[in-house]
Amino acid sequence: MAGRSSSPAVAGGVVYAGIYEAFPWEPDYGSGVYAFNASTGEYLWNFSTVFVDTIMSSPAVAGGIVYVGTRDNEFYALNASTGGLVWNYSTGDYYTVDGGIDSSPAVAGGIVYFGSNNRRVYALNASTGKHVWNYTTGHYVDSSPAVVGGVVYIGSWDGMVYALNASTGVKIWNSLVLNAVVESSPAVAYGRVYVCVWMSNDSNFYALNASNGAVLWSYKIDAQCLYSSPAAAYGKVYFGAWDYNVYSLNASTGALVWNYTTGNSVSTSPAISNDVVYVGSGDNILYALNASTGSLIWNYDAYDGIATSPAVANGVLYFVSSGLGRVYALGTLESETTTTTTTTTTTTTTTTTTTTTTIGNFWMPMFSDWNLISIPQVI
Asked: Which of 13, 74, 148, 359 has a 20 to 30 A CA-CA distance from 60?
């Protein structure tokens, strides 16, 4: 199918992902949330949205419920096992864009948080959908919230990063970045808030004090980094940019540790596991990079653009291609070992054969195409 996808979420042995139908004149498939068996790729269910062109938000899964926002101004809570509607919340009229939701939700303490193009940040009861609070910013809120220590951190197109009390929505602080847009979602680690803000032709990556919003350091990039949200690990912070690079900065000082150049813009957010950075690029390739050095460990050509972020669960890497909406599962099967022992007075020889393969990949929402493809990596 032709479309654009949201990033996958993996929970309870199930992969959940959204589809944004980019070409509504192709009527075969529409926007919706899809669920697949994480081990086999078996189709489990889908939930169709009211209109096409609607899902850019990535699902969040908590307490047996899948949460996702749509561009038709609806926020949905779905039964994770069946896809049935638990509740929905409207942020505006269907026929306006003012309440569209590109922000991916976060769930913490029984509350689900998300932003909207009506300039608001919302907090809803995760079980019932009842409104708890909302906070109005100065522009669109496409950034996704990070909820840490009872504080919601989120960016807005008004150039500010906001810290809001998670229980009440009261503003704790805001950090103003002039002549910029904050569409990247913040990462919170080491007492800092990391976020990339973009101007017309370049960007600044900031580390803010998580307590008061003060700028601790910044790193200038001669390209936009509006979509790639940072990931922090191992004392470093990782993100991608439209200059084709994946960056690693020292989380304390902002000094460049390494950068790796891909073949096209990097709009995805990195996933990090076992000292490996996984990130997709517009050159159709998923990269696995050494988190310490930035050296290439392996890459995988999906033959389709990758503008969604990967997810790692139970030793398997999941990602969705952006144009065709194809879901991939890359991982390592059990090693097959054959031992041959030759006994002499001096020598014993052992030969070991290891078979490594992907779990597979499958089309969304064409459910019968589950193909095994060899790839040499260990996650």
From this structure: 359
Read off the pLDDT of residues 59-104 as tens digits, 9 standing for 90 and up: 999 999 999 988 878 899 999 999 999 999 998 755 455 667 888 8
Q: Is the peptide bond before 365 cis (omega within 30 degrees of 0)?
A: yes
CA-nearest of 60, 171, 51, 54 to 117 is 54
**Element housing 99 (H / E):** none
**Residue 75: which residues within 8 A CB-CB, separation 6 or more?**
67, 68, 69, 88, 89, 90, 91, 101, 105, 114, 122, 124, 129
Residue 74 has which token pair? 């609806």
| Longest CA span, the chain | 85
Q: Which two tokens stand for residue 350?
A: 């052992």
Contact 57, 74 (CB under 8 A): no
Q: Which amino acid is present at 145?
A: P
**Mean predicted lDDT score pLDDT of the chain:** 80
Ordered by where they begin, the domains of the chain are 229-378 (2.40.128.630)
Contacts of 259 by beta carbon, 8 Å cutoff, 6+ apart? 245, 246, 247, 248, 294
Dihedral angle computed from the Cα positions of residues 218, 221, 227 and 230, in that order, rounded to the nearest 10 degrees: -40
Q: Which residue type occupies 34?
A: Y
Measured CA to CA, the distance from residue 289 to residue 266 in angstroms comes to: 14
What is the four-CA torsion angle of 336, 273, 375, 37, rounded to 10 degrees? 80
CB 130 within 8 A of CB 122: no
Whether the predicted pLDDT of 132 surpasses 50: yes
